[in-house]
Amino acid sequence: MKEVSKLLDYRSDIKVVDATVRDGGLVNDFYFTDEFVSDLYKANIEAGVDYMEFGYKASKKLFDVDKFGKWKFCNDDDIRSIVGENNTDLKIAVMADVGRCDYKNDIAPKSESPIDLVRVATYIHTIPEAVDMIEDACKKGYQASCNIMAISNARESELSAALDILGKTPVDVFYIVDSFGALYPEQLERLADIYLNFAAKYNKKVGIHAHNNLQLAFANTVEAAGIGIDWLDATYSSMGRGAGNCAMELLLGFLKNPKYEIYPVFKFIEKHMTALKENGVVWGYDLQYLMTGLLNQHPRTAIKFTKDARKDYANFYKEIITEEV
Predict the structure, then answer these.
(1) Which residues make Cβ contacts (< 8 Å) with residue 177, sequence separation at least 6?
(2) Number of domains into which the chain is organized
């Protein structure tokens, strides 16, 4: 149980990261209008959000540019068309996915780019390439985080080894990523203890990116903040792959730092997020995502279930519980 003071006070070290375009883009193939992204940028500035993640730096050799919106690739000129010189306190982030990013060619030096933070996404078994990507980003002048995905499937010994390797790099932030939305607060606390020990050893920060399969994304993010994790991801209206993420409106409502303002978030949701859902874009908690979360499985089967407009939940559960992993 957290001390009341940890829930009523605020820490100046907290950084709120908006991942709406990046994680939400997995729902609509990144086809956001310029008005949507521009208004989101302005809402984040007004709300006091610290970082806005625009999308991926995906390889155009691996992904067909005609099948995705531009925020799958985050060209610097496209970002500039939204932020200009970005003479604000809001910093710009992109995600570089190990094995899916031509980072040496597609990520320019920081002096030529509006981007501030490169978020390297990796699995435990691809840490060596993640290290190379981190070193490349930092050499070019960027901040860097390492977002270790599918952490609910990682062995503690492997996680400790990975964090020890990452600690020796110039990375700024280690991220706990609950990709399958399978973690309970008690499990998160145990994982966070491992992360925080290595962060203290190497003078790094720790972040959390939670998914909502068990309707615990907000709870886990609050737990993380109470433990001492500083970087907190959220999305407007919880928009994100499958069951979605920690909702920005919940997070800013919880944080006590007077720099954060929730009203601009409500205005943006009223104008844009409601319209997305009315136009048929689907995300958020549902039984199929609960099931994959309970089984600690990747939600790809639940995503297909949703796209196929199936409603035979019990039969779906039988399919995935008997599936060979």
Answers:
(1) 121, 147, 148, 149, 150, 151, 208, 209
(2) 2
Tokens of 292: 């994959």
pLDDT in tens, 273-307: 999 999 999 999 999 999 999 999 999 999 999 99
Instruction: Give the H/E segment covering residue 248.
Output: helix 248-254
Q: Are 273 and 292 in the same domain?
A: no
Q: Is 256 helix (H, G, I), strand (E, B) or coil?
A: coil
Residues 250 and 291 in one domain: no
Question: Are 128 and 261 members of one domain?
Answer: yes
Domain limits at 16? 4-278
Torsion of CA 279, 270, 252, 71, to 10 degrees: 40
What does the DSSP assignment read for 204-246? Answer: -EEEEEEB-TTS-HHHHHHHHHHHT--EEEEBGGG-SSTT-B-
Q: Which of 200, 205, 201 is nearest to 171 (CA)?
A: 205
| Inter-helix orientation angle 300-307/287-294, to 10° | 170
pTM metric for this prediction? 0.96
